[in-house]
Amino acid sequence: MTTQNLEIRRSSASVLGSLSGMRTAKTVSKYIDTTTCIGCKACEAACVEWNDLRRVATEQTGTYQTMPTLHAEYWNLIRFNERDFDGGIVWLMRKDQCMHCDEPGCLAACPAPGAIVQYANGIVDVNPDQCIGCGYCETGCPFDVPRFHQTTGKMAKCTLCVDRVSVGLEPACIKACPTGCLQFGTKDDMVELGKRRVEQLKSTGFQQAVLYDPHGVGGTGVITVLGHGDHPDWYGLPADPHVPWGVKLWKKVLRPLGVLAIFGAVIGAFSHFNKYGPKEARGSNDPDRNLPDA
Amino acid sequence: MSTAAPRAPMDSAVIVARDREDVVVGNEIVRHRLVSRLIHWTVALTFFVSLLTGMPIWTPVFGWMASLFGGLSVCRVLHPWAGIAFFVASIVQFFEWLSDMRVEPWERDWLGPRAVRYMRYEGDDPRTGKYNGGQKLYFWAVSLGSVGLLLSGLLMWFPRSFPRIVMEFAYLVHDFTFICFAVSLVFHIYLGTAAEPGTFGSMTRGTVTRAWARLHHARWYRQVTGEEPRRG
Q: Has this prediction a pTM greater than 0.80?
């Protein structure tokens, strides 16, 4: 979390938005090439080290994967997926972390002002001091990334090393990658790189190769080259991720209508009183006065 | 020779209202005995704590309410417990008032034209008992709504225990039910105070005037004064 030197593009639970428009920044992106990942987990170690995360117990699940899923103190996890394919087996390693969506579902669902922010460069970050630990972000995220920290009661996830990026360094995971399957730069540059790699893969037999940058969430700040692009689920990625319709309906339709309804009811009651006045018993409304029977 | 000034006699209606209701005391009629009023105000208090801790979580438009409790994170901790307390109080109130809340067939059009006529003060039905059709419908709507708020609220309290689609549904149910509650509550308070003078006393002293009873609840008035036999 670092807010001192980055413009904020979007902020959770903000009535009128937070963008001042004073400083611009190019959208940044990680680039992940699953076809050249060797599963060394250097990025996992670098993430834990740079972010000063506590050591989390590993869990054996029958693969090389460190633990079954992301953890509040383990923001970067190589998923070791195995698939039967074309008479053999394919080993599909994918770096799983926050995707830094252009339209973050976590931010849309978050009720705490400023607890989740999107900086001008597209990085989606959590401010633990504002987080109330409600878990709405977990429902909002189409990639199942945010994790509730059992001891702090706060949500935690990859920050895209915003503290490094904001001073011109690349994220720790990128820095540690020995094969170059991880790259970092502006989104435009990374998309260009990804397209070239996809063309290269297609020419070498991976006809289904794609650059995974899903439109449903406005594109992501982590773009992934998939050799088997016709099966993103093989990599543990949703085919068409989007902010859940329930969250949109809740925040964009029901909530504003509800606010209007409540103010409308108050105005309605005042108007009614002005038009009809109090409804009183004939004669008097003083409870202490003896009234003759009507 | 002087004697101590005699103490003012305790208001007899208030004494009767401690443990009896639907009885005439002088020019007043006891409408809600003490325990009934205490239950109502417990429901009201727990509801308002739930409301004021929930609304700032609902939308930043009402974020200022959070400062009443020391911030949004305090609200997030208090809200579910206040909600549980509200539900428990609501159950007690439900059984305290249930016997008077059977909706008569002729009261069904309170859902439509009768409610409009009522708000236009176009005359009350002489058949109106202790509670009118609107009050009965409010009672049933609130009872049903409490269950909806409880169930959806429990899901929202433990979001990691349920699938995403269930959680989405829970948020929508909690939101919708709350909005209905909030709108109804505005009219509940308005009708119980400004719009119908004399009503608020039934929840404080416990009593209403004969004139009030004749106007708003004609059949109840005839029953408690013995002009008409009581139901059942």
A: yes
A287 touches B at CB < 8 Å: yes
**B5, pLDDT greater than 90:** no
The CATH number, out of the four listed (3.40.50.720, 3.30.70.20, 3.40.50.300, 3.40.50.2300), of the domain defined by the range A8-243 = 3.30.70.20
Nearest to B175 among A148, A255, A278 (CB): A255
Which chain A residues are closer than 8 Å to B166 by Cβ? none
A-facing residues of B in 66-125 (CB < 8 A) are: 72-73, 75-76, 119-121
* Contact call for residues B96 and B36 (beta carbons, < 8 A): yes
Which ipTM value was assigned to this complex? 0.91
The mean pLDDT value of chain A amounts to 92
pLDDT at B64: 97
Domain spanning B32-192: which superfamily? Transmembrane di-heme cytochromes, Chain C (1.20.950.20)
- Between CA A235 and CA A257 the distance in angstroms is 40
What pLDDT shows up at residue A4? 54
Q: How confident is the model at residue A289 (pLDDT cuts 50, 70, 90)?
A: very low
Q: What is the DSSP string of chain B?
A: ---PPPPPPPPHHHHHTTT--S-EETTEEE-S-HHHHHHHHHHHHHHHHHHHHHHHHH-GGGGGGGGGTTSHHHHHHHHHHHHHHHHHHHHHHHHHHGGG-PPPGGGGGGGTHHHHHHHTT----TT--SS-HHHHHHHHHHHHHHHHHHHHHHHHHSGGGS-HHHHHHHHHHHHHHHHHHHHHHHHHHHHHTTSSTTSTHHHHTSEEEHHHHHHH-HHHHHHHTTSSPPP-
For chain A, give the percent of residues with pLDDT over 70. 93
